[in-house]
Amino acid sequence: MSELLVFALAGRRWTADARGVRRIESPGDGAKAIRASVLGASPAGSRNLVVERSGEEHGLVVDEVIGLHRPERIHAMPALAARCLGTRSPRGLVELGGELIVVVDLQALMEEIAGIEGSSRDGE
Amino acid sequence: MAESSAPPNPWGVLGSATDPWFFCIRLLGERYAFDAHLALEVVRLGPLTRLPAAPAFLPGVFTHRGEVLPVLDVGQLVGERATSITGRAVIVQCGPWRVALVADAVEGLVQVPDDRLEPPPATGGSAEFLAKVGTDAKGSLAILDLERMVESARARSHAA
Questions:
Q1: Most CB atoms closer than 10 Å: which of A28, A71, A96, B57?
Q2: Which of B61, B62, B147, B158 best probes binding to A when mutated, by most A CB atoms within 10 angstroms?
Q3: Interface contact A93-B99, CB threshold 8 A
Q4: Model pLDDT, residue B4
């Protein structure tokens, strides 16, 4: 079972596959820094999780990087719930400290954001 | 001895053995019910985990007996008003979907004679999901087509 990166964003904890995160840097150090998404907004966040999407680097700004966690089990997203969501980025759930935390596919999240940004530009 | 052809009647005291059984909940000040065979368990709702970009009728998911279950707010589906998520939920099996329905209160099993059941009104906020309406000793009852309601919730999913 691969390690999950645990981070805080908009007042709650999230996780993502640590293998998908290229590096963690300060916003503005290099990769594009996205401060708002379906996960919430981090206007003052100081850490940028950099992932690769279509050969380019993109970053999700988070409030805090908490650490790494190797889960015993990752629950699949309930199919009915997954079908109802307005995003495909949640890929599962993991129990951590008595709480059920969403596992986010950061690449899928970046794809969705890029798709929204592209649609916005087309509409201009 | 001839075998009885009537269905089992474990609750046996009142009503005909062939009268349909429903599971009754209270929502938004009204009594709603659905086919009793869909109800699996009444549980005390644990902490919910909200999901990103979730519709209002999906307040979150929770774990029960090692399984993650989605929670549906029937009040949001039938009346577009939120149910208070404070206490109990009913776990139901609707076709392939196992979900937890939140309710303001759980009444439990009720048996309604066929002659007390009528077609639902043609119009009205919850008419889309009503199979029948009925009355029992406690008053009126709106019988939900739960499978249609859950399928409708699924069909409201956002486009890929």
A1: B57
A2: B61
A3: no
A4: 46
Compare all CA atoms of chain B with the CA of A85 and give the residue at the minimum distance.
B54
C-beta atoms of A81 and B58 within 8 A: yes
pLDDT of res. B11: 47
Chain A residues whose CB is inside 8 A of the B156 CB are 84
**Residue range A95-110: average pLDDT?**
95
Contact residues for B28 (Cβ-Cβ < 8 A; gap 6+): B75, B79, B81, B83, B104
Alpha-carbon dihedral A113, A114, A115, A116, rounded to 10 degrees: 50
Q: A70-86, pLDDT tens digit by residue?
A: 999 999 999 999 999 99
Averaged over B122-148, what is the pLDDT?
84
- Closest residue of chain B to A91, computed from CA coordinates: B51
* Residues from chain A contacting residue B70 (CB–CB below 8 Å): 78, 80-81, 84
Phi/psi region, residue A11 (left: phi>0; alpha: psi -120 to 50; beta: rest), is left
Per-residue pLDDT band at B77 (split at 50, 70, 90)? confident
Are residues A80 and B153, on separate chains, in Cβ contact within 8 Å? yes
A87-121 core/surface letters (b: 16 or more CB in 10 A; e: else): bbbbbbbbbeeeebbbbbbbbbbbbbbbeeeeeee
Query: From CA A24, how far away is CA A49, in angstroms rounded?
Result: 5
Contact (CB, 8 A) for B30 and B83: no
At B79-133, the pLDDT tens digits run 767 766 667 899 999 888 899 999 888 899 999 988 889 988 876 656 678 899 9
CB contact A100 to B (< 8 Å): yes
pTM: 0.85
